[in-house]
């Protein structure tokens, strides 16, 4: 029977003594063998995209038997150069469902459950039911959210809420994989400043002094689109929308002698597209699932705690322990601080919270001592607090006040002390 | 699937059809075209990859080449699918048991991309290799890249020799449990579009005449504060350099080409004094960019090596290598057409003549690209044009040299196209040339770079892969694998084989003159424990590395690793070394 369960090569590592594991035991404290632990482990895969497809395949081929996958996205034609569980006929269908179905068909002995949902929609009980979580997300925002949520589970549920996260990310020929042991090792938020905030172009450059084709594209998408189509949301995947932008941007650029506006560049700027290839996904996803396998089976020591890979110029790779950040907004003392002139406006403070590498918030809502400074929504509260945006900070609160900040990127609020320079 | 527009569609240009993303292909490959562009994609689509072996290592590597659209792939293996393959190799199916494995993975892979044409050759690799030497139209010579996945050393030797003679890139990979080794072999690999990150080349400390007269045409004193806040930082830096030179009785361009770091502070003060306000963005940019722009002009050593190479000299020899070890062994001589007709080398020769000319004064052709600078549109575009014009002049000068060289070689003027000249000049600063060491000589003797290898973290892994190969040659089974005849306890077998593996490994170290090191017990035990079986995760990770390297070799873009990569999934480390 066991030979049918997983590959001979895996069996050897479940049965033979591990030379690199201290106090290696063939059964654990609860009397379970590595084989049992592997078969019984319940793994949540977040993301069924480039990394997710690889992660699902690898887990199924490594002897895991109970896999869940969650993704809110549907399949696009541009996914097919790497997301190998999808075919042209699947375009438009939910990624999680198509991927799960593919794995079930290929490996009927593995149970794969799909959730065509946003991660924020799932309950605490849902997340508590897993042994570990493997993340293959391209969005920093989603990675921050799940990291903060899972770190929070330890606080509310103690050991029962302790869920290791294996997280991977790629860009072009580069990528990284890391193991997060919530509250024990550096969490995603601790290393946030390693991700530079998205390139933004100042509005005044876009409006007055364009120099690059990107400036003209931003002019078309940020200024012209909402002016011409106030009721319609710009869809970066709609070729008609992108073509309209290409045309506007080209007209904008011509009198300035700015060249180089193409469909591809326009879509890249509008959607903030990051290059992605199958081979890099394979490297990073396998690094992640290899850690998942080691954690569950204790067949080798697990990653401490970060590996970086770059194939641009030769191969460069580094494995190192990323330090916990004592001021981490999620697993540290959660004290953010900002120093600004008291003459700055509230709007400038909000911009700082968006662009400062330590925060990188998306749409922060601010209160101080139960006074509403600014609310992003509901609409009524936004309108009510909007006049504050133009006010000076010194008019709104004293120096060294502690503001409570909530944002869609984080499941809980954070405290930010503002000191006037 | 596209939703029709809900509002007046006449607001959308009537000829959007014409501007739709050119083809399905542009959409399908969008995320990779942003890395290697049309030129790389064409190279990939014209490539034929020939793979010996059909295990998970082979199919996972191929998956990452079929998806981005490799033109053709051939899988050579006579293995049949067993119940273990179904568990380890994603591209065989449950009902494939008993069928030829090469055929099964080709069918599974072909599904991923209808543009990639796959062929299975159900013959033993040894058989195919044996017939290679007798035929010129064999599989290996028709391939643009060859991969060997899990072949025994004897076959790697023969394949290595054959590929070396043909000048065809070869990637040799094998995996043993948590460990894998990936080795690239090709006599010579030249890269024009290396995409290497380079310092900006603005030549501000020694401005070329057109730049200088452009700067002199701008009088900062006549500008109002708003206009002053929109002067590109390149111009501010040249102005500051002029002031600094005048104050110190120095000549711009002659005495300012390499300003010591200690004196750049003085320049920073000058920039600050010129600014209308201390936080004026363009002046802050100027301050930040002083260091990068006040040091001496330098040609990267990789490029110096290329233009200094025998193959770029006035009397190119057939072999571009000056490595005594390689010259000593006749079978290892470099068989590529080194100097005579190779476009890379013809242009390298032109590049050398260009830099040596009075015109260029030791510099490479200017690329013409400038970074964004806070500026008004007119000033920025004017500056951009100055650099573009200089780049065009340099290119014209370079073209003269290449055309003379073509003439002298009796080659037509269009032997090198204008587009190729454009790309070469644009990337002159980041050219790369890699020379690898042969594997056939290594397997019969020693690694070619023992001194380097001795200090590498990959040494012990490499030794153990070699030792496993030697163990196999002796016992016809890998360490830790039961022979299937007599029943043995697996723990005992692994322990016994580990002892022999260690002896072989330490013997190799002694014979290579690295007697001060021994292979660590833990690593030996880890190799013996693996039974040389592939773990899917490690096969998949290695398949990613192999495919990245293959893409770089086939497209001649980005820079392949020279020459071995070790994947250690136990320690989660990836090492690179030269053997």
Structure description:
- Chain B: Pathway: Protein modification; protein neddylation.
- Chain B: Residues 1-23, 314-337 are annotated as: Disordered.
- Chain B: One of its GO terms (cellular component) is cytoplasm.
- Chain B: This is NEDD8-activating enzyme E1 regulatory subunit.
- Chain B: Residues 29-574 form the THIF-type NAD/FAD binding fold domain.
- Chain A: It catalyses: ATP + [NEDD8 protein] + [E1 NEDD8-activating enzyme]-L-cysteine = AMP + diphosphate + [E1 NEDD8-activating enzyme]-S-[NEDD8 protein]-yl-L-cysteine.
- The complex is a heterodimer of chains A (421) and B (579).
- Chain A is of the alpha/beta class.
- Chain A folds into 3 domains: 2-196 and 275-320, NAD(P)-binding Rossmann-like Domain (Rossmann fold, 3-Layer(aba) Sandwich), CATH 3.40.50.720; 203-271, Ubiquitin activating enzymes (Uba3). Chain: B, domain 2 (Arc Repressor Mutant, subunit A, Orthogonal Bundle); 335-420, Roll (Structural Genomics Hypothetical 15.5 Kd Protein In mrcA-pckA Intergenic Region, Chain A).
- Chain A has 15 helices and 13 strands.
- In chain A, the strands form 2 sheets. In chain A, strands 3-2-1-4-5-6-7-8 form an 8-stranded mixed sheet, with helices on both faces.
- In chain A, β7 (306-310) and β8 (316-320) form a beta hairpin.
- In chain A, α4 (50-61) packs across α12 (278-297) and α9 (213-228) packs across α10 (239-253).
- The mean pLDDT of chain A is 93.
- With 579 residues, chain B is of the alpha/beta class.
- Chain B folds into 4 domains: 24-187 and 536-577, NAD(P)-binding Rossmann-like Domain (Rossmann fold, 3-Layer(aba) Sandwich), CATH 3.40.50; 209-293, no CATH class; 301-435, no CATH class; 440-530, no CATH class.
- Chain B has 25 helices and 10 strands.
- Chain B has helices spanning 16-19, 24-28, 30-45, 56-66, 83-88, 101-110, 125-132, 153-166, 209-216, 225-228, 233-247, 261-274, 281-288, 290-293, 301-307, 324-328, 343-356, 377-408, 418-426, 440-444, 450-454, 459-475, 490-511, 521-530, 536-555, and strands at 48-52, 72-76, 117-121, 145-149, 170-176, 179-185, 188-191, 432-435, 564-568, 573-577.
- An 8-stranded mixed sheet of chain B has the order 3-2-1-4-5-6-9-10, with helices on both faces. Chain B has a two-stranded antiparallel sheet with strand order 7-8.
- In chain B, β4, α8 (153-166) and β5 (170-176) form a beta-alpha-beta unit.
- In chain B, α4 (56-66) crosses α25, α11 (233-247) crosses α12 and α23 (490-511) packs across α24.
- Chain B is elongated and about 95 Å long.
- Chain B starts with 15 loop residues before the first helix and ends with a strand.
- Residues 1-21 and 318-339 of chain B have low confidence and may be disordered.
- At the A-B interface, α2, α4, α10, α11 and α12 of A face α2, α3, α4, α5 and α18 of B.
């Amino acid at each position: 029977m066991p030979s049918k369960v997983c590959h001979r090569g895996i069996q050897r590592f479940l049965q033979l003594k591990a030379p690199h594991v201290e106090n290696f035991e063939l059964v654990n404290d609860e009397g379970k063998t590595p084989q049992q632990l592997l078969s019984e482990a319940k793994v949540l895969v977040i993301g069924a995209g480039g990394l997710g497809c690889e992660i699902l395949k690898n887990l199924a081929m490594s002897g895991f038997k109970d896999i869940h996958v969650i993704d809110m996205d549907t399949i696009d034609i541009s996914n097919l150069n790497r997301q190998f569980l999808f075919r042209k006929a699947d375009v438009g269908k939910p990624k999680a469902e198509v991927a799960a179905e593919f794995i079930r068909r290929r490996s009927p002995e593995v149970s794969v459950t799909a959730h065509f949902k946003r991660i924020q929609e799932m309950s605490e009980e849902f997340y508590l039911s897993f042994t570990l979580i493997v993340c293959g997300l391209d969005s920093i925002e989603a990675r921050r959210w799940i990291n903060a949520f899972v770190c929070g589970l330890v606080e509310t549920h103690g050991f029962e809420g302790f869920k290791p996260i294996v997280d991977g990310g790629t860009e072009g020929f580069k990528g990284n994989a890391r193991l997060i042991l919530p509250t024990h090792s550096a969490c995603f938020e601790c290393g946030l400043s390693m991700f530079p905030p998205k390139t933004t172009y100042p509005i005044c450059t876009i409006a007055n002094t364009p120099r690059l084709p990107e400036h003209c594209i931003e002019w078309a998408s940020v200024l012209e689109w909402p002016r011409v189509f106030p009721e319609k949301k710009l869809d970066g995947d709609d070729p008609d929308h992108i073509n309209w932008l290409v045309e506007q941007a080209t007209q904008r650029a011509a009198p300035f002698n700015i060249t180089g506006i193409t469909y591809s560049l326009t879509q890249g700027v509008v959607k903030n597209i990051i290059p992605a290839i199958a081979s890099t996904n394979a490297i990073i996803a396998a690094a992640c699932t290899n850690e998942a396998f080691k954690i569950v089976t204790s067949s080798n020591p697990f990653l401490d705690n970060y590996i970086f890979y770059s194939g641009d110029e030769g191969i460069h790779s580094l494995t190192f322990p990323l330090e916990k950040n004592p001021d981490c907004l999620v697993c540290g003392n959660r004290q953010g601080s900002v120093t600004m002139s008291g003459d700055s406006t509230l709007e400038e403070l909000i911009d700082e919270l968006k662009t400062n590498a330590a925060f990188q918030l998306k749409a922060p809502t601010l209160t101080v001592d139960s006074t509403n400074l600014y609310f992003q929504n509901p609409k009524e509260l936004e309108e009510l607090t909007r006049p504050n945006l133009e006010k000076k900070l010194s008019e709104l609160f004293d120096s060294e006040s502690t503001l409570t900040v909530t944002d869609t990127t984080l499941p809980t609020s954070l405290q930010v002390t503002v000191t006037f320079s | 699937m596209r939703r029709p527009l809900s509002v007046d569609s006449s607001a959308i240009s009537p000829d959007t059809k014409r501007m739709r993303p050119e083809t399905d292909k542009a959409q399908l490959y969008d995320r990779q075209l942003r890395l290697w562009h049309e030129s790389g994609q064409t190279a990939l689509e014209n490539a034929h990859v020939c793979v010996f072996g059909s295990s998970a290592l082979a199919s996972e590597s191929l998956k990452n080449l079929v998806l981005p659209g490799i033109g053709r792939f051939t899988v050579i293996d006579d293995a049949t699918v067993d119940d273990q393959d179904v568990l380890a190799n994603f591209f065989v199916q449950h009902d494939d048991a008993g069928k030829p494995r090469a055929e099964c993975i080709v069918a599974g892979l072909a599904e991923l991309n209808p543009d990639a044409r796959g062929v299975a050759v159900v013959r033993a690799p040894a058989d195919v290799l044996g017939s290679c030497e007798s035929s010129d139209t064999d599989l290996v010579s028709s391939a643009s890249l060859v991969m060997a996945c899990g072949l025994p050393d004897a076959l790697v030797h023969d394949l290595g020799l054959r590929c070396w003679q043909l000048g065809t890139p070869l990637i040799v990979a094998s995996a043993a449990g948590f460990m894998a080794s990936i080795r690239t072999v090709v006599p010579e690999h030249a890269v024009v579009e290396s995409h290497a990150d380079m310092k900006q080349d603005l030549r501000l400390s020694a401005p070329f005449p057109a730049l200088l007269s452009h700067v002199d045409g701008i009088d900062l004193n006549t500008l109002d504060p708003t206009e002053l806040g929109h002067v590109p930082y390149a111009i501010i830096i040249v102005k500051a350099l002029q002031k600094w030179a005048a104050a110190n009785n120095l000549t711009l361009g002659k005495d300012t080409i390499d300003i010591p770091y200690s004196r750049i502070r003085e320049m920073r003060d000058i920039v600050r004094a010129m600014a209308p306000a201390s936080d004026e963005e363009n002046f802050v940019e100027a301050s930040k960019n002083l260091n990068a722009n006040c040091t001496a002009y330098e040609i990267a050593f990789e490029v110096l090596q290329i233009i200094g190479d025998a193959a770029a000299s006035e009397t190119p020899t057939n072999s571009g290598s000056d490595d005594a070890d390689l010259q000593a062994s006749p079978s290892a001589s470099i068989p590529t057409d080194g100097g005579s007709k190779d476009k890379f080398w013809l242009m390298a020769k032109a590049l050398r003549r260009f830099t040596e000319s009075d015109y260029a004064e030791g510099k490479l052709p200017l690329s013409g690209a400038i970074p964004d600078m806070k500026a008004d549109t007119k000033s920025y575009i004017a500056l951009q044009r100055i650099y573009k014009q200089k780049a065009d002049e340099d290119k014209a000068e370079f073209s003269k040299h290449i055309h003379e060289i073509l003439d002298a070689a009796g080659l037509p003027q269009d032997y090198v196209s204008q587009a190729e000249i454009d790309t070469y000049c644009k990337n002159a600063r980041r050219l790369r040339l890699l020379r690898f060491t042969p594997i056939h000589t290594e397997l019969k003797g020693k690694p070619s770079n023992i001194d380097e290898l001795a200090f590498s973290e990959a040494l012990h892994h490499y030794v153990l892969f070699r030792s496993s190969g030697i163990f196999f040659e002796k016992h016809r089974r890998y360490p830790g694998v039961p022979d299937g005849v007599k029943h043995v306890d697996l723990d005992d077998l692994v322990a016994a084989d580990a002892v022999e593996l260690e002896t072989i490994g330490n013997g190799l170290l002694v014979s290579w003159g690295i007697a001060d090191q021994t292979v660590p017990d833990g690593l030996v035990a880890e190799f013996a424990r693996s039974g040389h079986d592939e773990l899917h995760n490690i096969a998949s990770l290695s398949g990613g590395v192999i495919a990245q390297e293959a893409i770089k070799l086939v497209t001649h873009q980005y820079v392949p690793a020279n020459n071995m990569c070790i994947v250690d999934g136990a320690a989660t480390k990836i090492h690179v070394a030269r053997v």
